[in-house]
Specification:
Length: 423
């Protein structure tokens, strides 16, 4: 039976940071199914880990029979959202924006299609209405509803204004108006009454709620989700390195799987509730076990398997599990070609070798040793493994049997240092 109280479900999962007019919202949910929207600006060619909770929250609404609208902010991506950014966002060209938008639309559709939930799903672009609007119309018809005083007092704006070295551009300052107008158009055209976003979007969502109230005299609602934070206190997003993308061509399913396997023990049960569709009773059962270390490890496996399957599908998750089994439990026999492809992509350090068949030279080129002399000593010390088999011969030459699928050899130094040779 469909759970009529989606709000209770989200609260139990820790997925609500703020919700406007909860009592009124619950009354509406008891009367009818609603349309809910979430927006993503196409500032890259893939969504990332920071977008996953909004996707999951939307999926929960859909499982409860509500209709989803995703808005790809093609227009707003050309402006840049200043929300809690320390400096102006680097803006992309229209050419890149269009390419990014196409990929993100496809990614959203595939996420729900993969989970057999692509019905009742609409994906739009806000360029549909902004490209038809001129500046004077926008300022006279929409701008008049916004107070500069209240806009300046938004926390995300105040922080930027106080930064003498950065400040805030007028284009970024006006971003809140554009997002508010998005909500208004979706309410008028599609009957959307709820916007979902990260907690850093509270100010923008509130602006949309107020604009709709002033223009139409109607009530709509906003729901924000807690941000997924890194250990350094920053939210997950695009970084110069270390971004966890939802596109397996940018972050392999194996690396994605490993991210969840390696989450902090302190976060594991919270993440199981937020990121999976496991029953709370099953999660409570894990949490209540006495053997903490054993059951935390099992819980991490359950988390990694569920989230990887959700994002990348069962086949790629099974591949990630096979690679993990091989790397950490020394059982290379079951690995398939697709597994080595993922390892080569971003799983472990990789080196390309053409003509050399000398183990010592391979150890140097792979970075597992700093010199041939050190390589020789490591072999003599029984510290070197070729495809998980200990190699003691300092003059060892690779042969055809070492080249799995005629292309790959796994080198290991000690217990944890790996390199994949690609022939």
């Amino acid at each position: 039976m469909v759970n009529l109280n989606i709000v209770s479900e989200l609260k139990n999962r820790g997925l609500i940071h703020n919700l406007t007019k909860e009592t009124e919202f619950l009354t509406i949910l008891l009367e009818k199914k609603i349309k809910v929207y979430c927006g993503f600006d196409p500032t890259a060619d893939s969504l990332h880990l920071g977008h996953l909770l909004p996707l999951i929250c939307m999926k929960r609404f859909q499982k409860n029979g509500h209709k989803l609208v995703f808005l790809v902010g093609e227009a707003t991506s050309l402006i840049g959202d200043p929300s809690f950014k320390e400096k102006s966002r680097k803006l992309n060209s229209i050419f890149h924006m269009e390419a990014f938008s196409k990929k993100i639309k496809h990614q959203i559709f595939n996420f729900f299609k993969r989970n057999k939930n692509s019905s009742n799903l609409t994906i739009l672009s806000n360029l549909n209405w902004f490209k038809k609007m001129n500046l004077l119309d926008f300022l006279s018809n929409i701008g008049k509803y916004f107070s500069i005083n209240s806009m300046i007092n938004k926390e995300s704006v105040k922080k930027r204004i106080k930064r003498i070295d950065q400040g805030i551009a007028f284009s970024e300052f006006s971003y809140s108006l554009l997002q508010a107008y998005d909500f208004l158009k979706l309410y008028q055209q599609k009957g959307v009454i709820l916007q979902i976003g990260g907690s850093d979007q509270w100010g923008n969502i509130s602006s949309g709620i107020n604009l709709i109230r002033k223009v139409t005299k109607k009530k709509v609602f906003g729901l924000t989700i807690p941000l997924l934070m890194q250990s350094n206190g920053l939210k997950f997003g695009k970084t110069e390195r270390g971004t966890i993308w939802l596109d397996s061509k940018k972050t392999s399913a194996y690396k994605f799987y490993q991210f969840w396997i390696n989450v902090s023990d302190n976060n594991i049960y919270d993440y199981l509730r937020k990121f999976t569709f496991l029953k709370n009773s099953e999660i409570d059962n894990f949490e209540g076990k006495k053997n903490f270390e054993k059951h935390v490890f099992l819980a991490k496996q359950k988390l990694a398997e569920n989230v990887t399957t959700l994002v990348h599908g069962k086949e790629k998750c099974e591949s990630a599990k096979r690679i993990t089994q091989s790397i950490f439990f020394n059982s290379i026999e079951n690995m398939k070609k697709i597994d080595f492809f993922q390892l080569k992509q971003d799983g472990i350090p990789t080196v390309n070798l053409l003509n050399s068949d000398d183990l010592q030279e391979a150890l140097v080129k792979s970075g597992l040793s700093s010199s041939r002399g050190q390589a020789r000593n490591m072999i003599l010390a029984n510290a070197i493994y070729v495809n998980h088999k200990k190699e003691k011969n300092i003059k060892y030459k690779f042969n055809c049997q070492d080249k799995i699928f005629g292309k790959y050899t796994l080198l290991r130094r000690g217990k944890k240092s790996y390199c994949l040779i690609c022939w």
